[in-house]
Design brief:
heterodimer, A: 640 residues, alpha+beta, Dipeptide-binding Protein, domain 3, 5-stranded mixed beta sheet, 4-stranded mixed beta sheet, 21 helices, 28% helix, B: mainly alpha, two-stranded antiparallel ribbon, 16 helices, 80% helix, 1% strand, peptide transmembrane transporter activity (chain A), SBP_5 (chain A), SBP_5_dom (chain A)
């Protein structure tokens, strides 16, 4: 974790280790895309060496040095799909995780960093002469602009990102030189570097001060008047519209004039009514391959905006999409995609899932029903439910036998794997389940043969799942049958997503089936499955609310102990100490048995056009580590 | 005539207000709001969003306010030509709807014209030649076409073109022309793509119009005035087209008002299936994500179209048949 950056970059690929010296390519050797030659010759564009700066990042191509040219064809669905663009082409953090997500942090925009021993301040070094897509220099001032002028502003940032605050305190920045700055807090922020390398880290180098400052009253006294003249209600609305402040802001993909550090810049924006979003090469992109060719290889991007994922699926089958991992990569589509491979001239590439389980079964510990609450809080009740499931049969039915029976836990092979948490109560044992249920006062049966609550009233347990997410609803229907077999009157409640969220956010649910999250390197960033962390901790949402300061209920001491352990993790940047502390959190989670799991996570897949080169196989998929952005899409190329 | 039209328009105002209340109620009916749908969508794709961010979104959109207050804010804005902002696209609704509505109107109009162009002559011919081979053929076609749901036809067409010919027919333009300004080349590109949705949208309508025309005309053909004309030696074609056809057109004209909204609502599913840049997919998406101002604007406009359609058919009827105006 948080590996120190050496003078070289390492990339593990297929078991071999390739190294490339950052200065391998001499300045005069740099080559550029043919379409830029004429612009340079006519004097509209400076020479390639000048555009790249003194130390461009050297990317080792996955398979081979590529060739220039071509238009990448992708697909989006609906109006809220801006993060497709983000995950494919917008992952340019200061530091980046490697494609394998081994935990190594590589230099990216920053060429290096150092952390103070107490994890309170972090000094970054930028690349000499690096430029924005409009040719203006990228310097420490651009980062300082975000930290000092944007982040503290209540209008632009009404709620502050958790990873940039320590107990509510915002960071300060001191700029030593155009290429060196230090970000610091008065208290330790031990998770800062891994967050900076995650998808969130993109935030720090998103805004070009020279361009974006014109919308702020601090830099332009007419900003408010100009905003109103442009039709906005005030300067802040105009600023958001033109610069797209948050990493997930749709406005990030709107304004072709906004300078960017990404490999392609937008030409046809993602606005309502758009059916196609288009990008062109950023002539100032600051990465080269090992042969000194300026990246990206691919000239243009052309992304269709589809009304439905099924339409996109049809485009994939017709061979009109070069890479798809977001909307069609669903196990349900696998047979039809496999059948269409030859006609559509694509292949299916496996993606390793790194989440903690195929799904989570969460019994609501904060139930508002006075009769159900003590039953649900009884650990033996949850153990009985777990023993009542025939996991192997479920895995065979739902996942064609892929996956191994397991509880919700970090994955085996990571420093966070917890044997007890992963393997307890897995046996299919109906007798044990019945014995446990009898022992906790559920021994009386009603006329329908189902167990009654201790006060003699019928105990009906609703098991909710979202119908749109097919696999989870199918699973929930199976669980219900197993639980009825041990006398629990479980009922399957198919729900629309919105209703599901309304009910669970208000803690009105009994049991919900939902996806698991972090199970790999990312457990520190979102530990929602291992203790009440947020309103996404479905087993104890009220405690999660209490933790985030949004009301809720005060939890028992063991939860508070987990919270304090998590604070200690943030207080250190020693990976071993962090892992040891996290094990203590997991031990408590194992003792409490918060959630029931089914199977190890099932792998995903991507559809890759046969002409697309330099696409690695079997790399992890995720949001924190957003693929295919982490695969370095700038080194994808079209084979001749 | 002018008084008649003014009276009709005056009657439309309270109807329009009632529609606006209904539209607002409909978009408020599902549980939750845009922010909860947004959170659920984000969570589904494995992405994460801060609950503090959600709260600030709710505040910005004024979702915590009383429903009545929200309604009056909304309708007050519309009176000033401001339909509010789309939550999902973060753009003013007015920027979104007109382009899409324009494309919808274009497709609907083409469909309407073609429907009439085919159904009228076929209907007249099969009534005049009742129980002929042509009549049986057109009847068979009509029943088949009416019984086939539009969206199914769209799916089958998509399947055939994709699987057998290896081209997808989704959309109204080739990728190269999608973002290009209008030109002759783009117009031709539009024509080569637009026949699919027009065909899909038009078949069922054409079929039912053929049946209506045939039945109406058959009612008239045996009336004494037709016999009288024939006895006077009028040529058969002129006889049928001049008198009974005009009368038979009456029920036709009075349903123009229903054709407009039916085309647009039928277009919703078809254009979603065919991925057309029309109002349908945007409305469906807005409803799914509870993007209430956008959905409300579309529902309001569809309601307005029903009223306008009815007005148009009333005026047309009044022109073609003076008895209606007097009664």
């Amino acid at each position: 974790m948080g590996g120190k950056i050496e003078a070289f970059q390492g990339r593990r690929h297929g078991g071999d280790i390739f190294f490339a010296l950052a200065t391998a390519a001499l300045a005069q050797d740099y080559k550029q895309a043919p379409e830029l030659d004429a612009l340079v010759a006519s004097g509209d564009l400076p020479a390639v060496a000048e555009r790249l700066g003194a130390e461009p990042r050297v990317i080792v191509p996955v398979d081979e040095v590529g060739t220039y040219g071509g238009t990448f064809r992708g697909g989006m669905v609906g109006g809220n799909d801006r993060n497709m663009l983000f995950t494919y082409f917008g992952y340019e953090p200061l530091l980046a995780w490697d494609a394998d997500w081994s935990g190594e942090v590589e230099p990216n925009i920053a060429s290096g960093y150092s952390a103070s021993a107490d994890s309170k301040s972090f000094t970054f070094t930028l690349r000499e002469g690096m430029k924005w897509s409009d040719g203006s220099p990228f310097t420490s001032d651009d980062v300082a602009f975000f930290i000092e002028d944007i982040l503290p502003d209540e209008k632009l940032f009404p709620s502050k990102p958790g990873w940039l605050t320590v107990e509510g305190e915002l960071p300060t920045i001191s700029v030593a030189s155009p290429t060196e700055f230090t970000i610091s807090w008065t208290k330790p922020n031990g998770l800062f570097i891994i967050n900076a390398a995650s998808v969130y880290g993109v935030q720090l180098a998103l805004l070009n001060k020279a361009y974006c400052s014109q919308f702020l009253p601090k830099y332009n006294e007419n900003a408010d008047a100009e905003a109103k003249a442009a039709g906005a209600t005030d300067w802040s609305e105009r600023m958001v519209a033109m610069c797209g402040i948050g990493i997930e802001a749709i406005e990030r993909w709107r304004n072709p004039e906004r300078p960017t550090l990404e490999a392609w810049r937008i030409t046809d924006p993602y606005v309502a009514g758009a059916t196609r979003v288009a990008f062109e090469r950023n002539p100032y992109y600051w990465k080269v391959d090992t042969a000194g060719n300026q990246l990206p290889y691919i000239d243009d991007l052309s992304i269709s905006v589809n009304a439905e994922s099924q339409t996109l699926l049809l485009s994939v089958l017709a061979g009109e999409i070069d890479y798809e991992v977001r909307h069609t990569a669903n196990p349900i589509n696998l047979p039809v995609l496999a059948e269409g491979m030859e006609a559509g001239s694509y292949h299916i590439s496996s993606r390793e899932s790194r989440v903690g389980n195929a799904m989570t079964i969460s019994v609501n510990l904060n139930s508002q029903d006075p009769i159900k609450q003590p039953i649900f809080s009884n650990k033996d009740f949850r153990i009985a439910l777990s023993h009542a499931l025939d996991r192997q049969a479920i895995i065979d039915t739902l996942y064609l036998g892929q996956g191994t029976a397991q509880q919700v836990s970090p994955r085996q092979g990571t420093p966070f794997y917890n044997e007890k948490l992963a393997t307890q109560y897995l046996a299919y044992d109906v007798d044990e389940a019945n014995r446990l249920l009898d022992s906790i006062g559920l021994d009386k049966r009603g006329g329908n043969g189902m167990r009654l609550a201790p006060d003699g009233s019928p105990l009906v347990v609703n098991v909710a799942a979202v119908t749109a997410l097919g696999a989870m609803a199918d699973a929930a229907e199976l669980f219900v049958q197993y639980w009825q077999a041990v006398g629990i009157d479980a009922r399957f409640a198919a729900m629309d997503r919105t209703r599901f969220y309304e009910e669970k956010t208000a803690s009105q649910h009994d049991i919900v089936v939902w996806g698991a999250t972090s199970g790999g390197i990312d457990v520190f960033i979102d530990p929602r499955d291992y203790f009440p962390f947020s309103t996404e901790s479905n087993f104890a949402i009220e405690w999660g609310k209490y933790y985030t300061g949004a009301g809720g209920q005060e939890p028992p001491d063991y939860v508070k102990e987990q919270w304090s352990l998590y604070d200690q993790i943030k207080g250190t940047s020693d990976p071993e100490q962090q892992a040891a502390l996290f094990q203590q959190i997991l031990d408590i989670a194992a003792d409490q048995f918060y959630q029931i799991g089914v199977s190890t996570a099932i792998n995903g897949f991507a559809v890759v056009g046969n002409t697309l080169g330099n696409v690695p196989e079997n790399t992890p998929t995720g949001w924190i580590h957003p693929d295919p952005g982490t695969l370095n899409t700038e080194q994808f190329y079209f084979k001749q | 005539m002018l008084f008649f039209i003014l009276k009709r328009i005056a009657g439309m105002i309270p109807a329009m207000l009632a529609i606006s209340v209904l539209a607002f109620v409909v978009i408020q009916l599902p549980p939750g709001d845009y922010v909860s749908t947004y959170a659920a969508q984000i969570a589904q794709s494995g992405e994460r969003v801060d609950s503090a961010v959600l709260e600030s979104l709710r505040e910005r959109y004024g979702l915590g306010e009383n429903v009545v207050v929200q309604y009056f804010k909304w309708i007050g804005g519309i009176a000033r030509g401001d339909f509010g902002d789309s939550f999902e696209w973060r753009q003013p609704v007015t920027e979104l709807i007109w382009g899409r509505m324009g494309m919808t109107a274009l497709i609907s109009l083409c469909t309407l014209v073609l429907m009439w162009a085919f159904s009228l002559p076929i209907g007249i011919y099969s009534a005049a030649r009742q129980y002929s081979v042509t009549d049986y053929l057109s009847t068979a076609f009509a029943f088949l076409a009416m019984a086939t749901p539009n969206f199914l036809l769209a799916i089958v067409l998509l399947y055939i073109t994709t699987m057998w010919f290896g081209v997808s027919v989704g959309g109204l333009f080739s990728p190269a022309f999608e973002n290009a300004p209008w030109s002759l080349a783009k117009l031709w590109d539009f024509i080569t793509h637009a026949w699919v949705p027009i065909f899909v949208l038009g078949t069922a309508g054409t079929a039912s119009l053929i049946r209506i025309m045939r039945a109406n005309l058959l009612d008239e053909l045996h009336k004494p005035y037709v016999e009288a004309g024939r006895a006077k030696g009028l040529p058969e074609a002129r006889l049928i087209l001049t008198y009974p056809t005009r009368v038979a057109l009456n029920p036709f004209i009075s349903t123009v008002g229903w054709v407009l909204p039916a085309l647009i609502s039928g277009e919703l599913i078809v254009s979603t299936v065919l991925n057309l840049p029309t109002a349908g997919p945007l409305l469906l998406q807005a409803l799914k994500s509870q993007d209430m101002y956008l959905a409300g604007a579309f529902i309001l406009l569809s309601g307005a179209l029903v009223l306008i359609g009815t007005l148009v058919s009333d005026i047309l009827l009044a022109i073609s048949d003076p008895r209606i105006r007097l009664s």
